[in-house]
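The following block was generated as part of the benchmark described in Methods. Ligand: zinc ion.
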Amino acid sequence: MDIFKPGGVTTIVNADRYEDIQLPFDTMSDRGGMFDNNIVITIDDCYNNQHVRAIFELLKNNGLRATFFPNTNYLLFDEETISLWQEIYQAGFEIGYHTTNHATHLSYADLEEDFWAFTQHMRALLEDDSFEINLVRAPYGVWYENWYLWSANNGLMSVDWNVLTEHQPERAELRLQEGISPIILLHSTAFDVEWLNANLNQLIMLARQYDGIVGSVYDCVHRE
Ligand SMILES: [Zn+2]
């Protein structure tokens, strides 16, 4: 089993990495045990390359990884964007689906089409036709019936969040005290870059205090 070890050890993301793990349907159904006392870091939308890079490098330089949920409409095929996302991918960070354009309440058929367009966009950007998606996050956190049906039928795990950057890291501690794995949501804003800069050490210490780690969904998922 490929378990992440702190210190910059990285692996290429691909669907096989989850093969021995029974992925639950969503992160709401098993709040207590799914990520143990680990703190999951997620970054949504990814409309600003400079801030995405700052978050990526801050985590990487601390030997950590995270899960990105971009909208592919923001990911243009210019040199800067291509190299940023190829670096993210090659460093073993995860990339999940968040729709091409942040639309909500898509029909079942539109979700299938949009997911395919998203996947193809990422494969082209990453120059890797084997790129696969395991994780999905609904725009605005709106989990509606078609979303559930579609994600369940396709073996995808819906990932929500429970700590925002309007909160202090104490919110993550509160979650741990409640027996709930913290899932932090960042966006690619200057404020969120600053928040992570200011609070990452505290989050690492907090996870350690509970025998946990800080990482991507993959890094944090409970293993037997
Ligand atoms: Zn979003």
